[in-house]
Amino acid sequence: MSSARAAASQPTKLLIVDDEPAFLNQLRLALQKDFEVWAAESAEAAWTIVQAEHPELVTLDLALDGASPESGFTLLERCLAFDPFMKIVLVTGNDNEANALRAVDQGAADFFGKPVDVAELKVLLSRVLALGRLERRNAALLAQLGEEHRLGSLVGRSQAMRAVFRRIEKLAAVDIAVLIVGESGTGKELVARELRRLGPRAAKPFKKIDCGAIPENLLESELFGHEEGAFTDARVGKRGRLEMAQGGVVFLDEIGDLPFPLQVKLLRFLQEHQIERVGGLEVIDLDVRVIAATNKDLAGEVRRGRFRQDLYYRLSVGDIELPPLRERREDILFLAQFFLDRYVLAYGRGRLAFSARCKRALERHDWPGNIRELENRIEKAVVMASGRLLDEMALGLLEPAERRPASLREARRETERQTIRAALRGT
After folding, report:
1. The predicted structure's pLDDT at residue 340
2. pLDDT digit string (tens) for 103-125?
3. Which contiguous run of DSSP H or E holds residue 374?
4. Cβ distance 207 to 250 under 8 Å?
5. I want to staple 204 with a disulfide (CB 3.0 to 4.6 A). Which of 135, 247, 297, 357 is the partner?
6. 420 pLDDT band (50/70/90 cuts)?
7. What residues contact residue 70 under an 8 Å CB cut-off, 6+ apart?
8. Portion of the chain with pLDDT greater than 70, in percent
9. CATH of range 3-142; options 3.40.50.1980, 3.90.950.20, 3.40.605.10, 3.40.50.2300
């Protein structure tokens, strides 16, 4: 038996962390047929096991000292720092849902309430385990690409993308607003996250708000927050995304859809680094970097009176333009192979490859949905694959005329037309 096969046949290591011995033993007995189970009643004992055994899965009760959940939060943080792909599931009482949600926000995979339904817990553990393994494989794929063909999670080997990589690296180090411009599906949010990852705010919050997806009457509150009683449903005060991003980065997606009155408030924040919540009088000082993105021609929107010129100038001090996929065709097959490798691993489909005709179709297609469309088509093709080769039909890349079988007479006429065209080109 090969070492790889032997490793695959070994049971997954699961660490159960709970300070109730009876519950700990019950869970261990219920799960030991499916996992190699380790158990710990304290954060210290759990940390020792994590370092020695490298479990892929952990179930964790936050309140390990009987009252405060802080020891559990500390253990969660240490485990994820030790292995970012480790999947940690909170097993908690119904009265601790707020802490469970906080833990998920800090990196836990999911949470499960007591009393535990073992069958449901097994399904949940299997799901998060598969996710963790997929993340590991994706990280390995990225590592294989070589530094010159990627920047973090961004992939590309064309001159256009190398220029984008260089611009991201330069702007990441300068703490100014950045405007990312590109068609839908070109990877604007990935660029925003790379700017944060490479900059001095990497360990601070990253908060996103889609300016085009939230109704205008709610968008101001989402962005700037509100005080209790500010409007009919404001029963309690709420921090906005700008406050929540304190010290870090706020990503304003589709900034071109921001209503004109809110453009004024955003400009004031960019100038003064201060906000007031809706319905509030207190001036709140903030240290937040703003990264915005749009698929619109904002200069044109300024000319048409739909976007403030002064806000446009503030945002575009640092600008990054992402080329559409059709303008960097040398990246198409490179990206296609990257996504094929990713989803073959994700769905366990064995070896798959593109046929020669499929490669030509990939390069010929205009990709109006850009990278998002390419990834989506390849994922669907991998899921539905029945053989070793993916053809253009599997990716849905046949032109309408190509989808209809031609009669012998039509085929002969087309051949004659092509022969005549070739002869004319030669004269």
Report:
1. 92
2. 887 788 888 888 888 999 999 99
3. helix 370-384
4. yes
5. 247
6. low
7. none
8. 87
9. 3.40.50.2300
Closest CA to 173 of 289, 265, 255: 289
Q: Decide if pLDDT at 376 tops 70.
A: yes
Residue-wise pLDDT for 161-212, tens only, equals 999 999 999 999 999 999 999 999 999 999 999 999 999 999 899 999 999 9
Contact criterion met (CB below 8 Å) for 178 and 211: no
CB 247 within 8 A of CB 201: yes
Asked whether 40 and 46 are in contact (CB, 8 A), the reply is yes
Return the domain boundaries, the chain. 3-142, 151-323, 327-403
Cβ of 387: how many Cβ atoms within 10 Å?
Answer: 9
Q: How many whole angstroms separate alpha carbon 241 and alpha carbon 209? A: 7
Residue 332 CA to residue 142 CA, distance in Å, equals: 16
CB 60 within 8 Å of CB 72 = yes
Q: How confident is the model at residue 142 (pLDDT cuts 50, 70, 90)?
A: low
CATH number among 1.10.150.20, 3.40.50.2300, 1.10.1610.10, 1.10.8.60, domain 327-403 = 1.10.8.60
Q: Is residue 8 over pLDDT 50?
A: no
Cis peptide before 115 (omega within 30 of 0): yes
